[in-house]
Design a protein that fits this description.
This protein has helices spanning 19-33, 57-64, 83-95, 117-131, 184-194, 212-226, 240-249, 255-273, 293-300, 316-326, 329-332, 354-361, 366-375; strands at 3-9, 39-43, 47-52, 70-79, 101-108, 135-136, 143-150, 153-157, 160-165, 174-178, 198-205, 234-238, 278-280, 307-308, 378-380. The chain has 392 residues and is of the alpha/beta class. The strands form two sheets. Strands 1, 2, 3, 4, 5, 6, 7, 8 and 9 form a nine-stranded mixed β-sheet that branches. Strands 14-13-10-11-12-15 form a six-stranded mixed β-sheet, sandwiched between helices. α5 (184-194) crosses α10 (316-326), α7 runs antiparallel to α8 (255-273) and α8 packs across α13 (366-375). The structure holds adenosine-5'-triphosphate (ATP) and magnesium ion (MG). Magnesium ion (MG) is lined by residues 182, 184, 282, 284, 287.
């Protein structure tokens, strides 16, 4: 064997009782992610090891860096717990590096290994100093040489690749994400996945007022989030009739408030049907008229389902930073209209009153329109790459 991948678990190491369940879920998510490769996986309570053909090792490590439940990924060399073998492998690994300063960090988990960690740092440090033109720097070295001596063997590596942290997706059950084509809701979905929630997406479209481009953009966003999960689906709600009924029956300044109450009603009913226990959305306190806390309270009043708003207390710039990091930003800023932006009133109410909403809603039979929306939801499982017409 040449090199192998060593995975250090993320936050799940703090969960004593559930540790086994967490690790099993992570292993199953990794198996899904790597289904196109031949590899072998072994794990215990502390580490997971993946061996594969070394020509795919970097590619696999890159994929693993996106999966939740991993603190870090290390491409390492494994040798027996034998001093001469360790020395030979260290020289072989260090020879390929360009460095002036270094530090050796030994961890001795196998106490039957005869040399204590500190002493072994000196043994290996001396070896490197003798063979290369370099100095020790314990604070800010160019090269860190990690040596982990464990019962199953000694692992030698240089750098750790940061994992995505969080909990393995699926450990928390399912949530229904209200996914628009904006910047906020894909970020909200990513953050929910990071806490281990399995995410399904719900998108409200209003053709012909909203275009196929807008829908394809949402599918594209879902496919990007799916890189962190593997089983995201998009459910498309045909919202036109209900939305038009709102505009015909309610005063303009209440249109958005009532439209959002309808979205929540549909999302709640459909989430229950799909066995989702929570709703997730990209609302951020104070961002627009429908997201003042009075608006949120009046809108939230239609549901008993817990609503998770992962970006509620982030600034727009903080949200954008995450969107850039996870790769959704470029798609989110494509200029296709969402159903929230069409028919946008000049002066949407900032402090809506619940009684008024109830009064306006009694003007029309929205229940049957809601049922019609739900009956006609289109489910998109295959998140193929999307194309857009008439791009600028
Ligand atoms: P932006 O990044 O431009 O703010 P947004 O997606 O946050 O876009 P908002 O108008 O702020 O848009 O809507 C608040 C939240 O409501 C969204 O984050 C999303 O969760 C939900 N939402 C809005 N429009 C839709 C839609 N067409 N389909 C599904 N959910 C939607
Ligand atoms: Mg927003």
């Amino acid at each position: 064997m040449e090199k192998l991948i060593l995975i250090k678990y993320g936050e799940l190491t703090t969960k004593k009782e559930n540790r086994k369940v967490f690790i099993k879920m992570l292993a199953s998510n990794i198996n899904n992610l790597l289904s196109d490769y031949e590899y072998e996986m072994k794990y215990d309570r502390v580490r997971m090891y993946i061996t594969c053909d070394n020509k795919y090792i970097d590619e696999i490590a890159e994929k693993l860096s996106k999966i939740f439940g991993i603190h870090s990924i290390v491409i390492c060399h494994k040798v027996d717990n034998n001093v001469d073998n360790i020395k030979a492998k260290v020289l072989e690994v260090v020879k390929l590096e360009n460095f002036k300063t270094f530090k050796v960090e030994t961890k001795r988990a196998d106490k039957s290994f005869e040399i204590p960690s500190m002493e072994f740092n000196h043994v290996i440090g001396g070896l490197v100093l003798k063979n290369f033109d370099c100095k020790v720097d314990v604070h800010n070295p160019d090269l860190r040489i990690h040596i982990e001596i464990r019962p199953e063997g000694t692992f030698i590596y240089k750098n750790e690749i940061a994992g995505s942290g969080g909990y393995p997706v699926g450990i928390q059950g399912k949530g229904m994400l209200m996914l628009s084509g904006g910047i906020d809701s894909p970020v909200a979905g990513y953050l929910a996945l990071k806490r281990g929630v399995n995410v399904e997406c719900l998108y409200f479209e209003s053709p012909p007022h909203t275009s196929l481009n807008a829908k394809n953009k949402v599918i594209k966003l879902a496919s990007i989030i799916n890189e962190y999960s593997g089983n995201v689906k998009v459910h498309v709600v045909p919202f036109t009739k209900l939305q038009e009924a709102i505009y015909q029956n309610c005063p303009a300044n209440y249109n958005i408030t009532i439209m959002r109450r309808m979205m929540y009603r549909i999302a709640t009913k459909y989430a229950m049907k799909k066995k989702c226990e929570i709703l997730i959305n990209g609302e951020s306190v104070g961002q627009v008229a429908s997201q003042t806390i009075t608006s949120m309270s009046v809108i939230n009043n239609v549901t008993n389902m817990p609503v998770i708003r992962p970006v509620a207390c982030l600034d727009k710039l903080e949200i954008i930073k995450i969107a850039e990091k996870i790769g959704t930003y470029e798609t989110s800023i494509l200029p296709f209209e969402d159903c929230c932006t069409i028919f946008l009133p000049k002066h949407p109410v900032i402090n809506p009153k619940l009684e008024k909403c109830l009064q306006y809603e009694s003007n029309f039979d929205y229940e049957s329109l809601i049922d019609e929306c739900i009956e006609n939801i289109e489910v998109i499982k295959n998140l193929e790459p999307q194309t857009y017409d008439d791009l600028l």
